[in-house]
Design a protein that fits this description.
heterodimer; A: Rossmann fold; 8-stranded mixed sheet; 12 strands; 45% helix; B: mainly alpha; 8 helices; 0% strand; flat
């Protein structure tokens, strides 16, 4: 006798088995979810050593003898928060830097309110960033410090290094968009269609929730469906649940972006691509990438759907520095900082690269 | 019997004349009673006090009332009045006819507008029937209904009413744009189900249907992701998204205008007020920072800063 084309009996048997498993999982999950969970993020101790308006400068006390005389300042994006670099023990860029003996500072941009809507890129770069860099230089009695930028914070760091090259010893850019003329990333395509003037005039600041909704729409099948199906399948595992919730905490902790900064970033970068063409004006000065003469290390993700490789890899060819290096990792936008695999390839590599350039 | 032919007897005229006389008497008596009731002897105690002014007004009203009724009681006036009554049915009929015609005309126009709604979609766009309906509705709203909200307003509340109408209009346009956007977002879901169904048919025919339900889910999510990627890279999607965002912005801006008006009635600052203050503070801070930097001592060469 031939086998049936539709094995109804097998399918039903599997369904029954799955239902039993799901029931058992739900029982265990209820214990996990109702029990104590360790979901705190950014737990590495730090001191706030400088404050200006909503902006704070975090300094992480060393956990071992300092290996680099030159401190490292990390500049995060205005979208989401810097807590991503210290998501959990074992997946913490901050912890890795401290273990490597780096004297680490990080900018916390805080939560912009309506009063911050007029702050421009100039205010962030030549205002807050410059004041912070000067503060660290004075504190360490140094002419130059190391600078590392992340995503939009990387773009700010590139602009800063071009405008103040005398204050930066080494520049590290990670998933940093500088060439916006690409169709690789949906964000680049969509931003060209956005009426930034109208949005800023209406909203004042650009709502973090609205931006987040836009990011979810980049891949709704995975980010709005599959992710939570995955959660349901593993919600009986305490570690998994804790990590999942930590990530959710970080993702949906979205400060608004100051309106005028958003306006300029969208119009000058996404729509006119002025930065890479040395035509962007910040604080009345033209940002000339040729003035970036310090060593430059440029990281990006091969599967980054927000800042695709094409948006990052041009930078090293446009700067004035002769000591440049591109490193493309097999991961996405966030994976660089949080994936287990990249914990070994990313922060330790930066530490080694900086040590090699320390006199 | 007298030869003199009495004037044409009109019972209606008698009735009117009696009623007018009675009305004049009652009105006059009431007016006379008022000062006593109000406790005032004469109307001109003080023409500036409210009660004095009121009595004065009452006296002059009484005089006018008496004069009018007297004039109306005269035979000639009575005749004209009665003539008016006699033509009243004609007048009512004409008024009714005009109203009915106007109503029928309006009804005809409305029916025409509704007919446009139910007009069939183009034969070649059958698969796109839903979006066709959405576009048609938006089109009809813009061409027909919207005009009612843009009728020029008059009087003291003109600007307030116009702002309110504007916000209603922008809300409707936003809803239309949002419906179109959501419809577009749902297209990949629809298509993915269809594709998965076809795949399953093929697998069933080949006797290769997976027994694990997870396989079905994985198959569907992969197809769905692919369809979304195709949609998101399309020009249509970017344009629809931009239109929806524009509509949202315009609605929020129009709504804000209405809120600003409402907030003016309350003892609170509006966004506009606060933005002005914030801008001034921002500019002052920038000036102070610039001056501070200018006053800072220059860095020395030894590395100390």
């Amino acid at each position: 006798m031939d086998a049936p084309k539709i094995p109804v009996d097998l399918i039903l048997a599997k369904l029954a088995e799955d239902a039993e498993k799901a029931q058992a999982r739900a029982r265990r999950a209820s214990d996990v979810l109702l029990g104590p969970l360790e979901t705190a993020i950014a737990t590495t101790p730090y001191d706030v050593v400088y404050e200006e308006d909503r902006v704070k400068l975090k300094h992480y006390p060393p956990v071992r003898e300092i290996q680099l005389k030159t401190p490292l300042l990390v500049v995060y994006a205005l979208i989401n928060r810097e807590t991503m670099l210290d998501l959990q023990p074992g997946r913490s860029v901050v912890q890795t830097f401290l273990d490597q003996g780096i004297d680490l500072y990080m900018i916390d941009w805080g939560y912009p309110t309506r009063k911050d809507r007029f702050l421009t890129i100039d205010d962030h770069v030549n205002g807050y960033m410059d004041n912070i860099v000067d503060f660290i230089r004075r504190r360490h009695r140094l002419q130059k410090i190391n600078l590392m930028g992340i995503c939009m914070g990387g773009t700010f760091s590139v602009i800063y290094s071009a405008l103040h090259p005398e204050k930066i010893k080494n520049l590290v850019t990670t998933v940093t968009p500088t060439n916006f003329d690409t169709d690789q990333g949906l964000l680049h395509t969509w931003m060209r269609a956005v009426n930034a003037d109208q949005m800023v005039d209406t909203f004042g600041n650009m709502s973090g929730d609205l931006l987040n909704f836009g990011f979810l729409l980049l891949n709704p099948a995975r980010l709005m469906i599959d992710k939570y199906i995955g959660f349901m399948e593993s919600m009986d595992q305490k570690d998994f649940v804790e990590n999942f919730i930590r990530m959710e905490k970080w993702i949906f902790d979205s400060p608004d972006v100051p309106g005028e900064t958003f306006r300029q970033f969208v119009k000058d970068c996404y729509q006119k691509n002025l930065l890479i063409q040395n035509q962007m004006q910040v604080g009345g000065q033209t940002v000339d990438l040729k003035k970036i003469t310090m060593p430059l290390l440029n990281f990006y993700g091969k599967y980054d759907h927000l800042v695709p490789p094409e948006a990052c890899e041009v930078l090293t060819h446009r700067v004035g520095s002769t000591d440049t290096q591109d490193i493309c990792l097999d991961t996405g936008h966030i994976g660089i900082y949080v994936s287990s695999k990249c914990q070994k390839e990313f922060a330790p590599k930066i530490a080694v690269w900086l040590k090699e350039r320390e006199e | 019997m007298s030869d003199r032919t009495p004037p044409e007897h009109n019972p209606m005229a008698d009735l009117m004349s009696t009623w007018l006389k009675m009305a004049a008497d009652v009105g006059g008596e009431l007016a006379k009673m008022w000062p006593a009731f109000a406790g005032q002897g004469a109307p001109a105690q003080s023409s500036f006090t409210p009660s004095g002014r009121f009595t004065e007004f009452l006296f002059s009203s009484r005089k006018a009332w008496e004069a009018a009724l007297k004039a109306l009681s005269e035979p000639a006036a009575m005749e004209a009045l009665l003539k008016g009554f006699q033509t009243a049915p004609d007048l009512s009929l004409r008024l009714l006819q005009t109203s009915a015609e106007g109503f029928l005309e309006l009804q005809r126009r409305w029916t025409e507008r509704l007919n446009k709604l139910s007009a069939p979609a183009e034969p070649y766009s059958f698969s796109d029937l839903d979006s066709e309906f959405l576009n048609r509705w938006t089109d009809i709203y813009k061409k027909e209904f919207r005009q009612f909200l843009t009728v020029p307003q008059l009087g003291l509340t003109k600007f307030y009413q116009e702002k309110f109408n504007q916000s209603v209009d922008k809300y409707n346009l936003f809803q239309a744009a949002m419906a179109e956007f959501l419809h577009l977002l749902f297209v990949p879901v629809e298509k993915s189900f269809r594709v998965v169904q076809e795949k399953l048919t093929e697998l069933a025919e080949a006797g290769k249907l997976p027994t694990d339900s997870k396989h079905y889910y994985q198959m569907w999510i992969k197809v769905l992701e692919g369809h979304y990627m195709t949609l998101f890279q399309s020009h249509d999607y970017s344009q629809t998204m931009a239109r929806t965002l524009d509509a949202l912005n315009q609605f929020l801006a129009a709504r804000q205008e209405v809120f600003e008006d409402a907030l003016k009635l309350l003892p609170v600052s509006t966004y506009r007020d606060m933005d002005e203050v914030n801008r001034e503070i921002y500019q002052l801070k920038r000036r102070i920072r610039t001056l501070e930097k200018k006053l800072q001592p220059p860095e020395n060469e030894s590395g100390d800063v």
